[in-house]
Structures are given as C-alpha cells and as structure tokens.
Design brief:
The chain has helices at residues 2-6, 10-31, and strands at 49-59, 65-77, 82-86, 89-93, 99-103, 106-109, 116-126, 131-141, 146-149, 153-157, 160-164, 166-170, 175-179, 183-185. By secondary structure, the protein is mainly beta. It starts with a helix and ends in a 10-residue tail after the last strand. Helices cover 14% and strands 47% of the residues.
Length: 195
C-alpha cells in the first residue's frame, strides 16, 4: 500500500493536499459561527431563561389583549421574578380599546408581570389624543391603567411643549397631570391641521 502511495503522481498529491486543506478550512469556518451570548448574571441571580426577538401579549379574564411587548431580548431571573427587556416597544390598551404606545432603552417587568418600568428615553404616546410625553423613567401599572414618572417630563401636543418635575397619566380617562415647576411654550395652533 505504501508503494502505491509513493507512486502517485505529483498532481494526485496536490489534489489530496488541497482536499485536506479544504476540509480543515470548512471545519474552522464552522467553529467561528457566533452563538448568542449568555445573559449576564447579577446580584438578582442566574437567569433561568432568555429570549431573543420576543413578542409578549397579556390577556384579561375575557380573553382581550390589553398589553403587548416586543423586545429584541428579554431575560428572566427567578430569584426576584423580574423580566428585563432591551429596547422594549409596548402597546397598552385602555378600557375603551384605545391603543397607547410606550418605548424606552430598557424595561423591567416586576413580579407577576406588573408594573412595567421603562428607563432611558422613556416615551408614552396617545395617538388618539395627539400628545406624547417623554421622561427618563416611566412606570405603568396595568391593573390601574396608570402611568407615572417621578423624573422630569416633557409633554408635547402639536407645537406646544410643557415641562414638569413629574407626571401622572390615567389611560382609561385620558387624563394627564404635570406637577412641580411646570412651565410651557404654547404657540397659536390650528388643532384641525396640527400646525
């Protein structure tokens, strides 16, 4: 057998070397496939699961969807029963079926998925009402349909802007309240055209 291998022409040797090199490169290429990074551990303990490109929907007792969340990544820790969200995008439905939009850089669902805390460029928008409020932190209690922030908040409606130290919004009634050092800019507008 050794004599047969030694009698192979240089072309065959070159073909065998190239074939072996190709197999080795294919093996190396497969090993470089990036796998999702495991979620970081923190003082809240080791996560029991994480999901990527997740969409969550909560339903009431009658089977109606009242809260939807989309996030590129969520991580749940069982010790504190908290779910952490990256770049959450929320749809909140009030008692009258109106949809409110909320988003932020990060989010956190407390135990039993309530409250929802949005942090970093948090925004709550009421498209039907024509207003949007921005704050660093926004907390939403789904049981009461109540959103609030204890940090500076800016309310925008058309070209108007009002700023306050904190806010409260009750989604079911569409009522909004700014408190503490409230100041605003109110140019004349035409509400029909929004300008």
């Amino acid at each position: 057998m050794l004599q047969r291998l030694s009698r192979l022409s240089p072309k065959w040797w070159l073909a065998l070397i190239l074939l072996a090199l190709g197999g080795l490169l294919a093996l190396i290429e497969q090993r470089n496939i990036p796998l999702p990074a495991p979620p970081p551990t923190a003082e809240s303990g080791e996560p029991d699961y994480y999901l990527e490109d997740a969409k969550l929907t909560r339903f009431d007792a009658a089977g109606n969807a009242y809260q939807r969340l989309a996030t590129p990544r969520l991580t749940h820790t069982p010790i504190d029963d908290v779910t952490r969200l990256e770049s959450p995008d929320a749809r909140l439905v009030d008692d009258r079926g109106r949809v409110w939009f909320a988003s932020a850089d990060t989010g956190r669902l407390g135990a039993n998925a309530n409250p929802l805390t949005l942090s970093g460029n948090a925004q709550l928008e009421a498209p039907g009402e024509g207003w949007r409020i921005n704050s660093e932190v926004l907390i939403y209690d789904a049981d009461d349909n109540h959103a609030w922030s204890e940090s500076d908040a800016v309310l925008r409606k058309f070209q108007q802007r009002v700023r306050g130290d904190r806010f409260d919004a009750w989604l079911n009634t569409g009522r909004l309240q700014l408190n503490g050092n409230v100041r605003g800019h109110h140019p004349t507008i035409d509400e029909d055209s929004g300008t």
